[in-house]
Amino acid sequence: MPAYHSSFNEEPDVRQVGNMSILPIKTKYRGVAPLADPSQPDIIDETLDLFRANSLFRNFEIKGPADRTLIVLILFISDCLAKIGSSRSTPTKIEATKSLNTLSVDSFPIPGDANFALNAHYAPAAGRADAEFLRSYLTQVRQELSLRLVTILYADGDIPSKWWMSFQKRRFMNRSLGA
């Protein structure tokens, strides 16, 4: 059974840095990301929808630049769940929000950095300006993703959903971003 790919692979006129799509998002955070139509799903919605199904796969055939963005975001969700699951006590929604927001803005490798886990599948940014743009874009996307993830995890109250937390030890493509 094949993995689920991004529906944004066919989007025309999408900016790329390296070989990764810079897709519009619906966000509350200021930053460099293009803004998406609020009535349409964005790459973050798609990542949250596909995470649990795709995290079961060890192999993933990349079919376009949006798949590369999807992979990075799926791996970030894995790191978020691992962060919440590694707490000594079950974090409340407020504690989880703070913890994941900190994880979102912490220093992280991008394609082209020596410690980026998937450099074999990603092209580095063309120059310093592109690399800084990509880092800013991914920081903004990670912040928005962590905010939406907490909303989903704590939808039923003040403890995280066991259905989501059961994926905290799963590794998509047997990889981690190293957070």
UniProtKB/TrEMBL annotation:
Please verify whether the record's keywords include Cytoplasm: yes
Any idea which UniProt keywords this protein has? Actin-binding, Cytoplasm, Cytoskeleton
- Top-rank taxon of the source lineage equals Eukaryota
Which locations, inside or outside the cell, does it occupy? Cytoplasm, Cytoskeleton
Q: Which Gene3D superfamilies match?
A: Actin-related protein 2/3 complex subunit 3
Task: Note one Pfam family from the annotation.
Answer: P21-Arc
The function of this protein is: Functions as component of the Arp2/3 complex which is involved in regulation of actin polymerization and together with an activating nucleation-promoting factor (NPF) mediates the formation of branched actin networks.
How would you summarize the oligomeric state and partners of this protein?
Answer: Component of the Arp2/3 complex.
Q: Which family does it belong to?
A: Belongs to the ARPC3 family.
What name does UniProt use for this protein? Actin-related protein 2/3 complex subunit 3
What is the source species? Answer: Lentinula boryana
Task: Kindly list the organism's lineage.
Answer: Eukaryota, Fungi, Dikarya, Basidiomycota, Agaricomycotina
